[in-house]
Structures are given as C-alpha cells and as structure tokens.
Design brief:
Blueprint lengths: L1 E5 L3 H10 L5 E6 L18 E4 L6 H11 L3 E3 L8 H10 L3 E4 L5 H20 L4 E8 L9 H13 L5 E3 L8 E8 L6 E7 L4 E7 L4 H13 L5 E3 L1 H5 L2
Parallel strand pairs: 1-2, 1-3, 3-4, 4-5, 5-11, 6-8, 7-8
Antiparallel strand pairs: 6-9, 9-10
Helix pairs in contact: 1-6, 2-3, 4-5
Bound molecules: 1,4-dihydronicotinamide adenine dinucleotide and the ligand O=C(O)C1=N[C@H](C(=O)O)C[C@H](O)C1.
InterPro entries: DapB_C (IPR022663), DapB_N (IPR000846), DHDPR_bac (IPR023940), NAD(P)-bd_dom_sf (IPR036291)
Subunit structure: Homotetramer.
Function: Catalyzes the conversion of 4-hydroxy-tetrahydrodipicolinate (HTPA) to tetrahydrodipicolinate.
C-alpha cells in the first residue's frame, strides 16, 4: 500500500518503522515541523490511505483535507471529537472513508469489550460498588482525559445506569463517574477501571509496554479501509 503519513512524531515514526516490514511504502509525510509537503499535494492515484496522528487542534482540518482530496483516512489523534459529527458528515458527503479509534491496540479494544461486559454485569448483580477510571500517560501528552479513558467511560455510562455523567476529577455526586488523569515521565499509556465496595475491589487494567501495539493496529486499519465507504472503528475491524 502507498501510505501518506500525517504527523511524524512518536506515532508517525513508529508506524513508518513497521510499514516497510509489512510491504508498504510511505509516499509522503505531512508534518509542519518535519516536512514541507501538504495533504493537497496528494491524489488518490498516489496514495491508497492516509494515517493521521498529530494534535487535537490539527486533527479535524487534516481529516477534512483528506476527505476532500478523496483519500481514505485512518485517524488516531485524540481530543478533537467535538468535531466528529462534522467529519462523519463530510465522509458521507464526499463518499469517502474515515476510520477513527481512540486506541488502535488490539489489547485495548479487548479491554473496551470486557469493560462493557463487566459494567453490564455489575449493574445486574452488584449493589454497593462505586466505579472509577484512571489513565496514566507521559508528561508530553496535551489532552486530558485520554481518548482511551473517554471510550472506557462511555462504555460504563452505556451499561451502568447508576452513573450518568463523567468528571475529570474525583466524583462530587454518586451519579458522577470519576475519570482521573495522571502524568508521569515517559509512561506510554496505562488505563484502569476499578470497582470498589466495602468488601472488595475489582480491577480491569491495560498497560501498554511500547507504541508498537498502537502502530500495528493503525496499520491493520489502513490495510482494511481502502475500497470501503463510510465511518468505521475497531469494532467493525475486529468484529467485537
Ligand atoms: N489512537 C491511538 O491508538 C493513539 C493515539 N495517539 C494520539 O495521537 C496523537 C499524536 O501522538 P504522538 O505521535 O505521540 O504525538 P507527537 O507530539 O509525538 O507527534 C505529533 C506530530 O504531529 C505534528 N503536527 C502537529 N500539528 C500538525 C499539523 N497541523 N499538521 C501536521 N502535523 C502536525 C507535530 O509536528 C508532531 O511531529 C495524539 O493526539 C495522541 O493522543 C497516540 C498514540 C496512540
Ligand atoms: O497521547 C498518547 O500517547 C496516547 N494517546 C491515546 C489516548 O489519548 O488515549 C492512546 C494511548 O493511550 C497513547
């Protein structure tokens, strides 16, 4: 596949490092610090798929530019979902293809699946438990809470009706789900869902050991997307 990389930071470079080994060619790099190339310089004849990992402030414009150029786009940037409906509408209007995941790791997507299952079971059986989400990331991360923590929170809110909203701080009422953020050194990404009662604690935890799992998942999505039209995520890709 011919890949256009948008964003050549920690994730862009990890993806580039894995792409050649899977038989892909990086035909362009768009990064305002690392390159002078622009998305508008590329056509569907030159690019099979664009992969976007940049910044919360940049992601929507990059996704929109890809869709207007007719380039299928796999987006991993977090912190821009207030624009997601607009992006989805543009994908429909341009008959384009947009793939978004707050986390491309297959392990994290299993964690999301188990999180929804546990929340539904806790709702069915377990009175007396409170629940909270914690995410820990490196100190360079600009958005808070992480996209992954937000997806986990949505999975709880949809299946555990005692919680009706989330707060990026300790809960101030029983119906609030605390989503706590910690920033420490070079931590790649750790997410925990913890149910606590007077009797015991139940934890679901994912700890990324490197960025390889994110990059492999983004490449899986990039291999899957070309030829499809619409808006997709890891549930469609993995059949979860
Ligand atoms: N969905 C997932 O699985 C994952 C998502 N992420 C998200 O991906 C994003 C990027 O993460 P990292 O690579 O760690 O960040 P980074 O800061 O290491 O790299 C970002 C790169 O984007 C470039 N950039 C910034 N604005 C740009 C623009 N307007 N156009 C083109 N390039 C631009 C920067 O120059 C930088 O090289 C973040 O939002 C992060 O939360 C990170 C890891 C996994
Ligand atoms: O910024 C990061 O590094 C990460 N961001 C994603 C998120 O916000 O959930 C995914 C991963 O945890 C790493």
């Amino acid at each position: 596949m011919k890949i256009l990389l948008i964003g050549y930071g920690k994730m862009g470079q990890t993806i580039a490092g894995l792409a050649a080994g899977r038989g892909h060619e990086v035909v362009g790099i768009v990064d305002h610090q690392a390159s002078t190339q622009r998305i508008e310089d590329f056509t569907p004849a030159q690019v099979d798929v664009a992969i976007e990992f940049t910044h919360p402030e940049a992601a929507f414009a990059n996704v929109a530019a890809c869709l207007r150029q007719g380039l299928p786009v796999v987006c991993g940037s977090t912190g821009w979902l207030h624009h997601f409906e607009e992006a989805a509408q543009l994908a429909t209007d341009t008959h384009g293809a947009l793939f978004y995941a707050s986390n491309y790791s297959v392990g994290v997507n299993l964690f999301f699946h188990f999180n929804e299952y546990i929340a539904a079971k806790m709702n069915q059986f377990a009175a007396g438990y409170d629940v909270q989400v914690t995410e820990i990331h490196h100190t360079q991360k600009v958005d808070q809470p992480s996209g992954t923590a937000l997806t986990a929170a949505e999975g709880i809110l949809a299946n555990f009706p005692a919680k009706t909203s989330w707060r990026n701080a300790p809960a101030q009422a029983p119906y609030e789900l605390a989503v706590l953020s910690e920033r420490e050194g070079t931590v790649v990404g750790t997410h925990e869902v913890r149910y606590i009662s007077a009797a015991d604690t139940i934890e679901l935890r994912h700890e990324a050991h490197s960025r390889q799992g994110f990059a492999e998942g983004a490449l899986l999505a990039a291999e899957w997307l070309p030829g499809r039209h619409g808006v997709f995520g890891m549930k469609e890709l993995l059949g979860l």
